[in-house]
Amino acid sequence: MTVSYTLEVADVRFGGFSKLLFRWKGSIYRLLYKDFLVFCGVYLFFSVFYQQDLFERIALYCDQFTNTNFIPVLFVLFYVSLAFNRWWGQYTSFPLPDNLMMVVSGNVHGADERGRLLRRTLMRYANLSSVLILRSISTRVHKRFPTLEHIVEAFMTTHELKNFESLHSDFNKYWMPLTWFSNLAARAREEGRVRDDIALRLLMDELNKYRGKCSLLFHYDWISIPLVYTQVVTIAVYSFFAFCLIGRQFLNPEKGYKDHKLDMYVPVFTLLQFFFYTGWLKVGELIINPFGEDDDDFETNQLIDRNIQVSMLAVDDMYQNLAPIVKDKHWAQRHFSIPYTLSTAAETLKPAFKGSTFDM
After folding, report:
1. What percent of the residues of the chain are helix, what percent strand, and what percent coil, each to the nearest 5?
2. Which end of the chain is more exposed for a tag (fewer CB within 10 A), N or C?
3. Signal peptide location in the record (predicted)?
4. Cα–Cα distance, 126 to 103 (Å, whole number)
5. What SS3 state is found at 34?
6. How far apart are the first and last CA of the chain?
7. Whole-model pTM?
8. Cα dihedral 65→68→74→76 (10° resolution)
């Protein structure tokens, strides 16, 4: 489930971000603790069992490569930035039916059963298309709808399933319900349910925007960040800390090795480096595909439930379901203000912003 902490950082306060450090679910600690324990275990193994002259010479040799100038471990920051932009792009590409359902509700007319059937079927086709694409890219949705028969129980009719399966294509057919939508909208225009060509064009424009987002999700899933990019970053981070396992060992101070005048036993700064660099790599691993089942992956099944519910409410229950039109509370007042509660009354004392150079 997506971990939200928005309310906790609504206001800037002392120790605001610090409190977030003690959360476990969705935290970097949960992602990293296994790798961290393995690194500490291997480091301790070398520290306890291999304190010999040959090993010390090897440690000195490896230590010269633990400088980030030799191994470009900072490259992981650019990788995470790229992965984040990809993550945000996938989020903004999620097909939400809100605009489409408003257009359907306002332009497909008829309070009778036929009108209701047209509006509900149009939105069902739109939601069906998003479910088909999501079950192709999201493990959560695929587990919920492992076969088309499971989709029939929720979205499709048996006749629609036959039509869907009868059309042979070597490619993903998530677009088929949207084609049904366009054909049904054209039929509604012929029947006069859509009253003019402008309204039909508006329907088609919103449908194409919706289809475009479904297509984007498919292509995000198809075209990944180049594998060589991911491999180079992973090798850079792991090889850096492989050298650190030996090169960062504390050697006998009595032998006078350079920069080894004190034996601290616990490599504090090396562990911090491991936490930061490997943590960034784990962040990249987490957000590179947000359609899995990690703590911060997208709640795709919940979004499906939300989309189908609000779609049907908008085009069915709310169709022409208007409250009586009456004069508003400030009908007779030329100048009026909206009331404030006591806790927000101080905001009325602040002058309205009129521009940065208004008082020059």
Report:
1. 60, 0, 40
2. C
3. none
4. 13
5. helix
6. 52
7. 0.82
8. 10
